[in-house]
Amino acid sequence: MPFFPTPERDDGYDITDFYGVDSRLGTLGDFVEFVRTARDRGIRVIADLVVNHTSDKHPWFQAARDPGSPFHDWYVWRDEPPPDAEKGVVFPDKEKSLWTYDRKAKRYYLHRFYKHQPDLNVGNPAVRDEIARVMGFWMELGLSGFRVDAVPFLLEAPIEELPDPHDYLGDLRAFLSRRNGEGVLLGEVNLPYAETMKFFGRSDGVGDELHLCFDFIGMQQMYLSLARKDAGPLTHALTERPVPPRDCHWATFVRNHDELTLDKLTVPERQEVFEAFGPDEDMQLYGRGLRRRLPGMLDFDLRRIRMVYSLLFSLPGTPVLFYGEEVGMTEDLAVEGRGAVRTPMWWDAVAEQRRDGDSLLAWTQLLVERYRECPELAWGTFKVVDTADPAVFAHRCDIDGGTVVAVHNFAEREVTVELSELEGELTDVLVDGTVPVKDGKAQVELGPYDCRWFRQVR
């Protein structure tokens, strides 16, 4: 979530100053101290880069309303809206068009989101230079990268000044890398796999645009698998998922700060997920998503919650965990819209669960530790394993000298599955124990909604 000064009409995504800190949160000095303290604890900090648009209260836009101002071309204007002005509206319950008339400018301006968030004209070199200055400013204060908001809208259409918008994304990465060789760009790209791959960069096996892209397809298919208690949809998605180019990776997640979008499911599939996890109309949003958090959707069943988090950390990619879910934080449907999942952190729950070795927080900490101890998960060759049981999702990750096999039961029943193509003995890394391997095969027993990680060192 952004932390910049804002009129607070869209939870901070309507920014009035890209070089400041919202006074409710502190000062620039507080920010620097926070980043330095995090770094001392081995934590690197990235922040939202929201440069598709600004607030309509931003000084740039206020100046741009004068057609004679040099800032006028910092935004996208038309004398008349296009015939398809309503096509692609992101918030259909709030907006009916992508274009709004400004009385002072006597022209229409583009806004992909709310009318109080006019789109910046990235085709303007002055705008691109300013975005670079914003990035450089925050990196100088210690940021290690950015989550790039609404990337497809940022690179929406080629124009004369920017014939290939992807060149600009490559420029952003090059600028970041010059400032910090370990910096990252994490992109919000909710598109089919083939389209998303273009945002990693060149097709010659070397990525030069985004370092990470959220796996929206895998996330949505996972919820369909949870609703059906059948691993099939997730298996299909991850079997079809392309391998990113070198120096790039997928960001795996089960929830983010927006509505839980299900837009890539078919209408019948979406309805299945609605019926399972958000049957009430008040739980749904925009006809395509849920304004609920994972623990509440799973009825606070710790078995299922632990299984899903285990899946998150075992899949190839970089796991991204939404704040509060490590302690079972749920939504507040009394809060309007997306705000239902953006409520304050449950710090009391953190304090309580720190004293409980069996808590969800303890489980999440264990997963983080084991993930760091298993380089196979991050760097190994990924393969879905056939278990002959539709309720079980199993996969393995292999690198030279080591293998990790993860098994997850989506059903509320006990299962026994056979794993093959193994050598030696399997060590369970989540609980103490081993599983013998005979003739390259091993029998694994799983309880309802159970999960296991097995490691084999050769």
From TrEMBL:
One of its GO terms (biological process) is carbohydrate metabolic process. It holds the Pfam family Alpha-amylase. Residues 1-370 form the Glycosyl hydrolase family 13 catalytic domain. Gene3D superfamilies: Glycosidases, Golgi alpha-mannosidase II, Oligo-1,6-glucosidase, Domain 2. PANTHER family: ALPHA-AMYLASE FAMILY MEMBER, MALTOSE ALPHA-D-GLUCOSYLTRANSFERASE. This is Trehalose synthase. It comes from Saccharothrix ecbatanensis.
